[in-house]
Write a structure and sequence with these properties.
The complex is a heterodimer. By secondary structure, chain A is an alpha/beta fold. Chain A has 8 helices and 8 strands; from the N terminus they run βαββααααββαβββαα. In chain A, the strands form 2 sheets. In chain A, strands 4-5-6-7-8 form a 5-stranded mixed β-sheet, with helices on one face. In chain A, strands 2-1-3 form a 3-stranded parallel β-sheet, with no helix packed on it. In chain A, α1 crosses α2, α1 crosses α4 and α5 packs parallel to α6. The N terminus of chain A is likely disordered. The chains are: A alpha/beta, B alpha/beta. At the A-B interface, α3, α5, α6, α7 and α8 of A face α1, β1, β2, α2 and α12 of B.
Chain lengths: ~250, ~450
């Protein structure tokens, strides 16, 4: 990989994978260039005076960067980077490159610069992803589908499925389950101690049996009766449980 | 399955039982599933997560983490404030231990809940009820190999051996004091004895200590209530002041090493009883007590600093920390770049995490107000109490009255149960965040952990 020529305005293009992004981090570090912009695909109308560099994912380079993050930066840096990546928001790759750039400079002292312009955006994003992951560990609702598979549809803002899977793999170790991210058309599939993430779509509607529906009814019954009428506070409820998460719950919130 | 019960109520439909017994259980404020960390074992179901997990929020804005249920609401006691008292005309029901265990696992497999919170009315006598609770927990742990969270009630007056056996299977146990003085207990709950409640609490505490001394190592055997012990106080059913209540809480934290004291605003559950108030539930008061409780546990305050014989109750308009700060203005302003950690924690608008961030950030450079805001400090309140590099944010010096006005004026309308649910946000959410995303400083881990 040759450093960018001339103009200094560089856009890196990669395949969208985490290792792809880590390869960019590697090149940016070696070439001493701070990328102006990182894209997953080349734009239809490229900018003038602008270099577009295709970066082929290189597992060795990526692993070298990952290793460096784990050994040279503070203990939570790698987790932050990974979470930020999973946010999948357009500026996430940029936040990661900026953060790592700051990290190579300050090493283990990076956490002392958490208010820095190059650290703050990543931290914010990582916290949002962590919050949604944590929230979703509670909000996933399994339904016992025909064939003895526990099926849970979710629609999170961020791609938290890879984070949720280990949690349920341990908790529900004896069951077969599928957590389906409807928005991303992917699912985590677990059985016999192993989980993997696959492309997934459901064509037919799932017919649940009476036992399953009875259990859902019991839960709704409980949900309604556990609230104290005198303390009714829908605003507070909505603050903790925003409306966008209601759709795939089993409990019916009025 | 039903052999040792001889009761027609057992034949009632499960749906109906659940309705009756969840209604009867809802006045217990506790729902925390935090404080235990446990892996699943081979062939078992469930895990426990240190930070706890909320699974839903009911229409009153309270978090649903555990399946909170009574074994039965058939009570021999007649406590005036309690919906389940024997003299109250309400539908009664009774679950078997088997039914509760099966229901818990069914709900757990669907990820509706984090575990079970099992309580009960005093059915027949404390021993009999405690035996049923023990049986239920045993079935869950042994037959279902359930490794999720279990909070079990200790029935005051029950055989200490039964309480001890239950505690080795549960994550948390609690005995509710309910009324904050012996006088009120005698008046409103004649069958409840202060001595019996404290005896149960001491029993739990000594078992915890005993377990610790024997150098219990996780994994070898299950510890005794690893998530500790809690209790609940009813607020507003009896005339005790905030000062009395907070002093009681402080004593409970010190002498019983409680993990939590819960406060539950008295909700009128009876048509008319001359001994009880008819006022609206004192939600705002409950909120202030939770805030003050937080200051006791994590911010280094003691009850005598917050209230006094002369000033017995919290200002409903102002949070306890601001109230304290305004009565101690001689300590302020504090310099953000110099003050020690303990003092930073005492500044209104500065929480534990922002105090930690300030300590960290200022080792590399001194903070400006702009950067201070980025640490998460609520400048709306903190601005009156701090300087950054000697600079004030307020142009002129304000007196206590105008600062108070500004702070109150700046408050968004209170979401009344927010403080109670702060356990969710700090205990079950931010704590999680600090576990994973901000490495806590050694030595101050305890302030966000151990709920």
């Amino acid at each position: 990989m040759s450093p960018a020529s001339g103009s200094g305005q560089v856009t890196y293009i990669y395949d969208g994978s985490f290792h792809g992004l880590m390869t960019i981090a590697y090149e940016a570090e070696k070439g001493n260039i701070i990328p102006h912009c990182i894209l997953v695909m080349e734009p239809d109308t490229p900018l003038l005076f602008h270099d577009y560099i295709h970066v082929a994912t290189d597992l060795n380079k990526a692993e070298e960067v990952i290793g460096a993050i784990k050994t040279k930066l503070p203990p939570l840096a790698y987790k932050r980077v990974l979470f930020c990546y999973l946010s999948e928001v357009p500026n996430a790759p940029q936040c990661i490159i900026d953060y790592l750039n700051l990290g190579w400079r300050y090493g283990k002292l990076l956490d002392h610069y958490s208010a820095h312009d190059n650290a703050m955006p990543l931290r914010r994003l990582a916290e949002k992803v962590a919050r949604e992951w944590h929230r979703m560990t509670g909000l996933v609702r399994f339904r016992l589908a025909p064939g003895g598979i526990y099926y849970a549809p979710i629609e999170p803002d961020y791609n938290v499925l890879p984070l949720l899977s280990p949690h349920f793999a341990e908790r529900m170790a004896q069951e077969h389950w599928i957590i389906h991210d409807i928005g991303r058309n992917i699912a985590s599939r677990y059985s016999g101690g192993e989980w993997d993430i696959i492309d997934f779509e459901i064509v037919d509607t799932i017919e649940y049996d009476d036992a399953e529906l009875a259990c859902q009814n019991l839960w709704n019954n409980y949900f309604t009766n556990i609230a104290i009428g005198y303390r009714k506070n829908k605003r507070l409820q909505k603050q903790f449980l925003p409306r966008r998460y209601w759709k795939h719950l089993v409990e019916r919130i009025a | 399955m039903l052999d040792y019960f001889q009761h027609g109520l057992l034949l009632m439909d499960l749906y109906k039982k659940l309705e009756i017994l969840s209604r009867s259980a809802k006045y217990d404020a506790s729902c925390a599933s935090s404080g235990s960390s446990r892996k699943n074992d081979l062939g078992g179901i469930g895990t426990a997560v240190k930070s706890g997990i909320c699974h839903s929020w009911s229409d009153d804005g309270r978090c649903i983490s555990l399946f909170k249920i009574l074994l039965t609401n058939m009570c021999t006691y007649d406590c005036a404030y309690c919906i389940n008292r024997v003299s109250n005309d309400l539908p009664r029901a009774l679950f078997t231990p088997e039914e509760i265990a099966e229901l818990t696992v069914q709900l757990y497999r669907r990820n509706y809940i984090e575990g079970l919170f099992l309580s009960s009315a005093i059915y027949r006598n404390p021993d009999y009820t405690m035996e049923l609770i023990f049986r239920t927990v045993t079935i869950l742990r042994k037959k279902y190999r359930f490794n999720g969270y279990i909070h079990a009630k200790a029935m005051p007056g029950a055989d200490p051996v039964l309480i001890r056996k239950t505690g080795f299977l549960a994550d948390r146990m609690s005995a509710n004091i309910e009324l904050p003085s012996e006088k009120s207990l005698t008046l409103l709950a004649p069958q409840k004895k202060k001595g019996a409640i404290f005896k149960a609490m001491i029993n739990i505490k000594s078992n915890i200590l005993d377990c610790r001394e024997r150098d219990y190592s996780p994994g070898r055997e299950r510890g005794f209530v690893p998530a500790g012990q809690s209790t609940q106080l009813v607020i507003g059913a009896s005339p005790e002041s905030d000062y009395t209540i907070l002093n009681l809480s402080e004593a409970l934290y010190r002498s019983f090493s409680l993990k939590r004291v819960y406060y539950s605003a008295y909700v009128p559950v009876t048509a008319s009883d001359a001994r009880l108030p008819v006022a609206e539930p004192p939600l705002r008061r409950e909120h202030r007590l939770y805030q003050a409780d937080w200051l006791l546990r994590f911010y280094g305050f003691n009850a005598g600093e917050l209230l006094s014989e002369k000033n017995q109750n919290f200002d409903p308009e102002l949070d306890p920390k601001s109230q304290w700060a305004l009565s101690n203005m001689y300590l302020f302003p504090v310099e953000i770049n110099k003050a020690d950690y303990a003092m930073l924690l005492r500044v209104p608008g500065i929480g534990m995490r922002s105090a930690q961030r300030i300590m960290k950030s200022r080792t590399v450079r001194s903070l400006t107000f702009d950067e201070l805001q980025r640490t998460g400090v609520v400048l709306k309140r903190a601005r009156f109490f701090v300087t950054c590099n000697g600079k004030h944010l307020e142009k002129e010096e304000l007196d206590v009255v105008s600062i108070k006005e500004r702070i109150i004026g700046n408050h968004a309308p209170l979401l009344l149960t927010a403080a109670r649910n702060k356990e969710r946000s700090i205990g079950q959410l931010d704590l999680f965040g600090s576990n994973f995303l901000t490495a806590p400083e050694p030595g101050i881990i305890a302030i966000t952990g151990e709920l």
